[in-house]
Design brief:
The complex is a heterodimer of chains A (about 450) and B (about 325).
Chain A: H1 2-20, E1 24-29, H2 36-46, H3 52-62, H4 77-82, E2 89-94, E3 99-104, H5 112-119, E4 124-130, H6 145-156, E5 161-167, H7 175-192, E6 199-202, H8 225-231, E7 244-246, E8 249-251, E9 265-269, E10 274-276, E11 280-284, E12 289-297, E13 300-302, E14 304-306, E15 310-315, E16 326-329, E17 336-345, E18 356-361, E19 364-378, E20 383-385, E21 395-406, E22 419-423, E23 430-439
Parallel strand pairs in A: 1-3, 1-4, 4-5, 5-6
Antiparallel strand pairs in A: 2-3, 7-16, 8-9, 9-15, 10-14, 11-12, 11-16, 12-13, 12-15, 17-21, 17-23, 18-19, 18-22, 19-20, 19-21, 22-23
Chain B: H1 7-10, H2 18-36, E1 40-43, H3 48-61, E2 63-64, E3 70-71, E4 78-82, H4 88-101, E5 105-109, H5 110-116, H6 132-143, E6 147-149, E7 166-169, E8 197-200, H7 208-218, E9 229-236, E10 239-242, E11 255-262, E12 273-275, H8 281-290, H9 295-299, H10 301-304, H11 309-315
Parallel strand pairs in B: 1-4, 1-6, 4-5, 6-8
Antiparallel strand pairs in B: 2-3, 7-8, 9-10, 9-11, 11-12
Helix pairs in contact in B: 2-3, 7-8
Classes of the chains: A alpha+beta (about 450), B alpha/beta (about 325).
């Protein structure tokens, strides 16, 4: 039994190592002045990602004051004029263990669409909590609406790891007691929301306490924020189980002299499963079956390809396949033109029931309608309300009908098959993000 | 004499296979652009970033023959905007590379815009960097390109940090930062109206270090300017200025010879070299690891003039 456990642990370590080569992409969410920019500036500064000319600019702007690390992240002129962040910015840094991509999401309520953008595809979310804004005498403390909203959004978008960073520890008299009060509130909230929490980390972004350097305090023995981020898993697709590939690109015959008519190669990033020559596959929507003749990755022929890789398949017979079709293990796909989904509405023009929109599922664009808005989420109570309208930044549950049947899957089990975007056909704006809940 | 420098000795603890992940992402974006649009083109300046994108395009669209060479042709032409102030080594490299690969190259000449009157220079030696936008947009209109693949990276500059992977340009070629489309998962919104176009950036998530690691790993050919060579230079405002016909010495300045390399290659009037002994990609990786000045800060005169200058140029339709 012990040796089994040891073998399992070894396997886990090997898996963790295999996952290491992916950069960890995490989003940071926080309100206007709870120190998010300072925290990011601190991560970049402590990992030495800031270069002399950038520091020089900061020093000039600081004059006689202490350098303001938060200025490293305010990008656009328009933002500096308004003193706010209006768009997701991407930042990069690396430690010896890992490479990181920060998707820096603005905290204003009116820009929740950017938070949704940052959350989709992120491996982790760092939700910033400003300890000075809370009454830490109460136990548990009462959290801000934004904190709950940000965490809830991350959970809705199935960001695998949610981390709370309790900031401005330097600004409270009794950090041990304040941390405990806020931690209790966060864990209580998370439990009620059924939200797994990867860590509740006390930090002072301003002083750099517990960001890269572990905190030297008797009341805290956990990891620093960076230590935690270094060991979080990335959201890997499953390499096991049935195969599913959305066809992205059908390569035409490249017309090499003397080569004659070459078979077309069907390229797509594998959503789940793996594929090798000889496998029987089924194509959707045509439902035709074929065997895989050859598998390529990039410019080379390979023995097999698996989830997360873009594979190029040639089949053993000529079939009519185009971008937007799906390739799957035979008899494993169910198509439907009606499903229930969580809808995050991102457009300033509210969602209109019955209107024709474009939706993109995998690589296919089809027309679709919202046939019903069943409820809207109240972020204060975390409960579904009996409201049948969705305006910008609202999240609700809807029923979608598509003009053609699609092989949708629950987002919970499959990000690729379970996600769609809604596009306004008049403006071409990306109006909403759909996460499939139940099919049929 | 020391043993030859190898990249794998420089970063022993950081697993280099993250390059595989970046490569996969870039190839995915390249195929997406070609599949979703009718008239793609690859912006090719012969700079290191576009040389990396070119190699990624070969991997995305060609097959490797038994001899390890790529077989086939890219499904799009290359597009270069020539300011007329390019370093001769760069133009020579561009033409040699394109000919060796058997690819198609379209060139938009800024000189033509000046002749047509769509670009007016305020003085003959003015930096032509900002004016490239006009030549670029005219080339896009002439060839009716609907998506342009570029080598821009988000780590380069503040305004670039907010750029989408698929970035919409209106019928005036302008970028509207406040109107950016949310980009969710890899479900890119590739829908555009007639007259509009899209820019797609396959190496958005790469850093300068990633680019050099990849160049070293893949042995990607680059113009000779990127590697240390002796050049006549002038020291001006903390930068080195290469002595050329369009960047002559000013009265009182001294010309000296130094071992330099370029970190970016752009218009001669605004691109500066840095002092360096690095003669190959591995040595440049070593230098980049110790770099204390950002790529644009060290080498671009026009980005220094104003903190927001890239944002302004991008809004006007710059690369």
């Amino acid at each position: 039994m012990d040796s089994l456990a040891a073998a399992a642990a070894q396997g886990q370590r090997a898996l963790a190592k295999a996952a290491d080569h992916r950069a960890l992409r995490f989003l940071t969410a926080g309100s206007v002045d709870d120190g998010k920019s300072t925290l990011i500036g601190r991560l970049l500064f402590d990992s030495r990602a800031i270069l002399a000319d950038q520091l020089d600019t900061l020093e000039k702007r600081a004059g006689a004051d202490r350098i303001d690390l938060s200025l490293l992240t305010d990008g656009l002129e328009a933002e500096r004029e308004q003193g706010i962040t209006i768009d997701v910015a991407y930042r990069y840094f690396a430690t010896k263990q890992r490479k990181f991509i920060i998707a820096d999401a603005p905290g204003h309520e009116q820009y929740t669409r950017n938070m949704v953008t940052a959350a989709a595809g992120s491996d982790a979310a760092v939700v910033l909590v400003d300890i000075t804004k809370l009454d830490t005498q109460a136990l548990p403390a009462r959290l801000l609406v934004q904190t709950r909203r940000h965490a809830l959004l991350a959970q809705l978008l199935r960001v695998p790891s949610i981390v709370f960073a309790i900031n401005k520890l330097d600004a409270v008299d009794n950090p041990a007691q304040a941390y405990e009060a806020v931690r209790a509130a966060l864990l209580d909230f998370a439990e009620r929301a059924n939200m797994p929490v990867a860590g509740v980390i006390p930090v002072s972004a301003l002083r750099g306490d517990n960001v890269a350097q572990p905190l030297d305090a008797p009341w805290y023995s956990g990891p620093s924020l960076l230590q935690l981020l270094e060991r979080l898993p990335t959201a890997q697709e499953r390499g096991v189980g049935d195969l599913l590939i959305p066809v992205q690109y059908v390569a035409r015959d490249t017309g090499q002299s003397g080569a004659g008519e070459q078979p077309r190669t069907l390229w797509g990033r594998i959503a789940h499963g793996r594929v090798k020559a000889g496998d029987e596959v089924q194509l959707f929507p045509s439902r035709q079956k074929a065997r895989v003749a050859e598998v390529r990755v990039a410019a080379e022929r390979v023995a097999f390809a698996e989830a997360g890789q873009s594979a190029g398949l040639t089949l053993d017979r000529p079939l009519d396949v185009s971008r937007g079709d799906w390739i799957a293990t035979a008899d494993t796909v169910r198509e439907t033109n009606r499903f229930t989904a969580t809808l995050a509405w991102l457009d300033t023009e509210p969602a209109v029931i019955g209107r024709k929109y474009w939706v993109r599922h995998g690589n296919r664009w089809v027309q679709a309608r919202i046939t019903a808005i069943e409820s809207r989420l109240d972020i204060h109570t975390l409960e579904a309300t009996n409201t049948h309208e969705l305006a910008v930044n609202d999240i609700g549950q809807v029923i979608i009908e598509t003009q053609q049947p699609l092989p949708v899957e629950a987002y919970e089990t499959n990000r690729v098959g379970g996600s769609l975007i809604i596009v306004d056909p008049a403006s071409n704006r990306t109006s909403g993000a759909l996460l499939v809940k139940a099919v049929g | 004499m020391n043993a030859p420098l190898k990249v794998e000795h420089l970063l022993p603890e950081l697993d280099h296979t993250h390059l595989d992940w970046l490569e996969e992402e870039a190839i995915f974006i390249l195929r997406e652009a070609v599949a979703a649009f009718d008239r793609p083109a690859l912006l090719f300046s012969a700079g290191k970033d576009s040389c990396v994108v070119l190699r990624l395009a070969e991997k995305a669209f060609k097959n490797k023959g038994a001899d390890g060479r790529f077989v086939g042709r890219l499904p799009f032409p290359l597009l270069h905007v020539d300011t007329g102030h390019n370093f001769p080594e760069v133009i020579e490299f561009r033409d040699r590379r394109v000919a060796a690969m058997g690819e198609r190259l379209a060139v938009g000449h800024l000189e033509d815009c000046i002749k047509r009157g769509t670009v007016r220079l305020s003085h003959p030696l003015e930096s032509r960097n900002g004016h490239q936008t006009v030549a670029l947009l005219e080339a896009i209109a002439q060839h009716r390109f609907d998506v342009l693949l570029g080598g821009a990276r988000r780590d380069e500059e503040k305004a670039r940090a907010k750029e989408r992977i698929f970035s919409h340009r209106d019928s005036f070629g302008q970028w509207q930062p406040k109107e950016q489309r949310p980009e969710l998962w890899t479900l890119f919104n590739t829908r555009i109206k007639p007259g509009e176009h899209m820019r797609a950036f396959p190496i958005s998530n790469w850093t300068e270090l990633d680019v050099w690691l990849y160049i070293a790993r893949e042995s990607i050919p680059l113009p000779s300017l990127y590697f240390a060579h002796n050049r006549r230079v002038i020291r001006r405002n903390g930068l080195l200025v290469a002595l050329t016909d369009v960047t002559p010495a000013r009265p009182g300045e001294t010309v000296e010879t130094a071992s330099v390399r370029f970190r970016t290659v752009g218009d001669m009037t605004c691109t500066c070299p840095v002092e360096s002994p690095a003669v190959n990609a591995a040595e440049i990786v070593a230098e980049t690891l110790q770099a204390t000045v950002s790529e644009r800060g060290a080498t671009r005169m026009d980005d220094r003039t104003c903190d927001a200058s890239m944002e302004r140029r991008k809004k006007e339709g710059y690369f």
